[in-house]
Amino acid sequence: MEAWPILGQRYKVLSFIGKGGFAEVFKAYDLENLEYVVVKLQYLDKKWPAEARNAFIKYALRENKVFWTLNHPNIVKYIDTINIDEFSICTVLEYCEGDDLDKKLKKKYYFMEKEAKAIIEKVLDVVKYLNQRT
Q1: CA-to-CA distance for 82 and 38, rounded, in angstroms?
Q2: Ranges of CATH 3.30.200.20 domains, the chain
Q3: Strands 35-43 and 88-94
Q4: Contact 11, 37 (CB under 8 A)
Q5: Rounded Cα–Cα distance for residues 21 and 30 (Å)
Q6: pLDDT, tens only, 99-131
């Protein structure tokens, strides 16, 4: 990726956050709404046959469509989708300050009962919300 690109003429990429199997995640700045966001760049292997690439893009777009309908304080908000080219797609999400649960667990190894209870209550609240939607 070139240094400091602007995606979709709106999101200025600032720094790398992490990487998964098919995606890289970056902190960016929304030049329209003047706020930090996260951009998730999903790359398809150019060696994949066209049918596999199309299926992956269809899956990613369907996932984004579902994400767009969610509205819960404990679920990251979907903002936008940008088609970059035939081998990559960008999902823009709400930026959340601080460590995620995985990083907190790796730092602490355990939580005090009160903190663990608060985390479990938030997770169960999301599960309840999602189950009420079906």
Answers
A1: 13
A2: 1-97
A3: antiparallel
A4: yes
A5: 26
A6: 888 888 888 778 899 999 999 999 999 999 999
Q: Tell the burial category of 124 from Cβ atoms under 10 Å away from its Cβ (0-12, 13-18, 19+).
A: exposed
User: In the CATH hierarchy, which fold is given to the domain comprising 1-97?
Assistant: Phosphorylase Kinase; domain 1 (3.30.200)
Q: CB of 13 within 8 A of CB of 39?
A: yes
Distances (CA, A) of 105 to 9, 18, 24, 121, 126: 37, 17, 22, 17, 20
Segment 66-93, tens digit of pLDDT: 889 999 999 999 999 998 887 888 999 9
* pLDDT value at residue 79: 96
